[in-house]
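Form P-L/3: holo structure prediction, ligand fe (ii) ion.
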Amino acid sequence: MTRFPVTALRSVDLGTPDLARSEAFYCETWGLERAGTADGVVYLRASGSDHHVVALHHSECTELKAVTFRLAGSDDFDAISRNAVREGAVLLCAPGPNKAPDGGMVMSLRGPEGGVLRFVHGDVRHAPRPLRPEWPERLAHVNLNSTDVDRSAAFYERALGFRLTDRSAAMAFVRCNSDHHAVVIADAKLNGLNHVAFLMPSWEGVMRGAGRMIDAGYPIAWGVGRHGPGDNVFAYFIDPVGTVIEYTAEVLQVDDSYVVRGPDHWVWPPGRTDQWGIAPPKADHVKAAQLAVRYAA
Ligand SMILES: [Fe+2]
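OUTPUT (holo model):
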């Protein structure tokens, strides 16, 4: 079995021009909970053990400030930083004690596409508690726009030890554990954030969460449906400041025996964009939102 130096996608740092509105949305409607605040940053947890899955920062515009991954061991910092720099990243902060509330050790670098990647080990975990079917458990994946999908995927493989799970015409799906993907890299004219997906305990939870969003005035932006690569159920939304977010469930679990399939395999029949044939064609305003959020400078 492959040993992955990165074991999980832990959290995302999102910049918002309206911090109070974003916090209220994520806590009252999306299903996260305030885990704490420090230096103006609001940390939001899900029902799983991660200290937080979203950190909200006030910023001039909606932007992706960082993606944080958890490392298997403290020994992995050196190899990751060495390999990442060799593959075009810039080390921003050498491994050291993390002064932020999630604790442990932290290292950060800027990836070849311009996004900040943070790596933690020994980070604070919450005690397990019963999963709530209608609320997010943890992050499922982050989908990043890239002007060079194959180069970006190669960075995740060569520098961060991910493995390619599938490759469609427009996207590369890479994994760092048994989830079919933790990161998706999408073909685009700009680098940045496409969307962030939150794992629900079941597809019933995706449906109930979607209903809660509709009740609160946030219509489904795309879905519901069941994806091809990864086989996960999905419903997409746009948050109050323009970030595209997804409820998902039933992500395919894979191991080393999984056979990578390419663009020739991942072709939809005419008129389809999901396995069930329920999801309507994606609206132009949703496609625009999936291209609008850039990496923080
Ligand atoms: Fe997704």
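COMMENT: Helices lie at 19-30, 76-86, 149-158, 203-215, 284-292.
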